[in-house]
Amino acid sequence: MMDVEPVDDLEQLDNSCQDQEELDDSVQTENDSKDDDALGVKGGAVRKPLPKATIRRRNNARIKKMVAPKAPIQVLNELVGPGNVKFAMQVPNPGMMNMNGPKLLTAEVTVEDQTFSGSGPSRAIAKNIAAEEAVHYVVMKRNKEQPPEDGGRFQDSTPWGALASLALFKLFNDWQSSGYSLPGELGSKELEMKGGVPG
Questions:
Q1: Distance between CA atoms of residues 139 and 162, nearest Å
Q2: pLDDT for residue 115 is more than 80
């Protein structure tokens, strides 16, 4: 007959291996010897905390993944769903346009039976301005919702991630319109394609 180890010992070994893998990334080993035991722990290793600068860079990388600059149109689609947003462009009346003034296009967006309009020098910018007004409406409406009664202390209906993404888009867009150029890792295709001011 074959020798079979008890299941409890295998489960304990598996659990301890998982616990070892889930150790916090903010700790590194000082001793880089390759004398690992069965659990992957280095023999005689002394753990010391990572420098604060390294932890800060890792946190910045995590936040960058979660909050990227997004145009108002994209934020609006994420908040209400892409099938619930209707855009329409108004044709400018040639008799009403000032001959020397800039040509402004007007876009309208309809969300939840509410219509919002925005004017801009291009279709994309006009749509973004209208979408930003719609985002304002949706956020204010969601913010008025009552939290659920099942302990809503740690719950919030305000879409903070969407607002942060929109705020970054606007900030970077303002910087570009002021004549500053953005580094490659800050600039995104969203700023160029979704109606941002060209740099």
A1: 10
A2: yes
Looking at the chain, list the stretches that DSSP marks H as alpha helix, in order from N- to C-terminal side: 7-21, 52-66, 72-80, 123-143, 160-177, 189-193
The residue behind tokens 């003034």 is 101
Q: Quick check: 184 pLDDT over 70?
A: yes
User: Residue type for 29, please?
Assistant: T
Confidence of residue 152 (pLDDT cuts 50, 70, 90): low
What is the C-alpha separation between 194 and 131, in angstroms, rounded? 12
| Axis-axis angle for helices 72-80, 160-177 (nearest 10) | 170
pTM of the model: 0.63
Q: Residue 163's pLDDT band (boundaries 50, 70, 90)?
A: very high
Report whether 71 contacts 135 (CB < 8 A).
no
- Residue 112's φ and ψ, nearest 5 degrees, are 50, 45
Decide: 152 and 133 in contact? Cβ < 8 Å: no
159 sits in the region (left: phi over 0; alpha: psi -120 to 50; else beta) called: beta
Residue indicated by tokens 């402004």: 104
